[in-house]
Amino acid sequence: MTAARPAGSGTAESGGGTPRRRAVGVLLGVALVALLADLLTKQLALSTLSGRGPVSLLGGTVYFTLTRNSGAAWSIGSGHTWVFPLITIGVIGWIAWMALRLRSLPWAISLGLVLGGALGNLTDRIFRAPGHFVGHVVDMVSLFDPYGQVWPVFNLADSALVCGVTLAVLLELTGRQRDGRRAADAEPDGTAEVADEAATGSEQRGRA
């Protein structure tokens, strides 16, 4: 006979959050979709825009123009390309740390977008010319002018990063925490975090 589980014990739902496994799955799924979409659009840009001038859309609001960027936006840091893979690896480590208590679907989407965008550009840095870890990122979209003087030429990975960071800022401003609680519900003495860790341990023991 299995003993009845006390109400509200050992589950992520008791705190109003999403089970951690599901939240991490959403994070990884969003990251994978963003990464694959970025790789696909870059390949399309290389096959259709190479050797062509800028392609204007929407009356010059958007341009498709193929560029290879060794730096960040507006080619900032172009002489230190090797630094950007290290920064990206640090971002990936930060996301892994954030995922340890992840029980919020909005946070999972935000972190997934950031992870997918970071991996998209890291792939370019590692595998594209002129060499490993100093590769140039493929960019292809420009707003308002074809040469990135008004707005930097960007790619889908950059868009995913911007959207993910923007969503994270909004979640912080509205008090949504990555464990599924709101800031107003968090206990100031930190007992909520202790209870959360205890619930996680109880859930793991229950599966053992």
From TrEMBL:
<protein>
    <recommendedName>
        <fullName>Lipoprotein signal peptidase</fullName>
        <ecNumber>3.4.23.36</ecNumber>
    </recommendedName>
</protein>
<dbReference type="InterPro" id="IPR001872">
    <property type="entry name" value="Peptidase_A8"/>
</dbReference>
<dbReference type="Pfam" id="PF01252">
    <property type="entry name" value="Peptidase_A8"/>
</dbReference>
<comment type="similarity">
    <text>Belongs to the peptidase A8 family.</text>
</comment>
<dbReference type="GO" id="GO:0005886">
    <property type="term" value="C:plasma membrane"/>
</dbReference>
<dbReference type="GO" id="GO:0006508">
    <property type="term" value="P:proteolysis"/>
</dbReference>
<feature type="transmembrane region" description="Helical">
    <location>
        <begin position="82"/>
        <end position="100"/>
    </location>
</feature>
<feature type="region of interest" description="Disordered">
    <location>
        <begin position="180"/>
        <end position="208"/>
    </location>
</feature>
<keyword id="KW-0064">Aspartyl protease</keyword>
<comment type="pathway">
    <text>Protein modification; lipoprotein biosynthesis (signal peptide cleavage).</text>
</comment>
<keyword id="KW-0472">Membrane</keyword>
<feature type="active site">
    <location>
        <position position="139"/>
    </location>
</feature>
<keyword id="KW-0645">Protease</keyword>
<feature type="transmembrane region" description="Helical">
    <location>
        <begin position="147"/>
        <end position="171"/>
    </location>
</feature>
<feature type="compositionally biased region" description="Acidic residues">
    <location>
        <begin position="186"/>
        <end position="196"/>
    </location>
</feature>
<comment type="function">
    <text>This protein specifically catalyzes the removal of signal peptides from prolipoproteins.</text>
</comment>
<feature type="active site">
    <location>
        <position position="158"/>
    </location>
</feature>
<feature type="transmembrane region" description="Helical">
    <location>
        <begin position="107"/>
        <end position="127"/>
    </location>
</feature>
<keyword id="KW-1003">Cell membrane</keyword>
<keyword id="KW-0812">Transmembrane</keyword>
<dbReference type="GO" id="GO:0004190">
    <property type="term" value="F:aspartic-type endopeptidase activity"/>
</dbReference>
<feature type="transmembrane region" description="Helical">
    <location>
        <begin position="23"/>
        <end position="41"/>
    </location>
</feature>
<keyword id="KW-0378">Hydrolase</keyword>
<keyword id="KW-1133">Transmembrane helix</keyword>
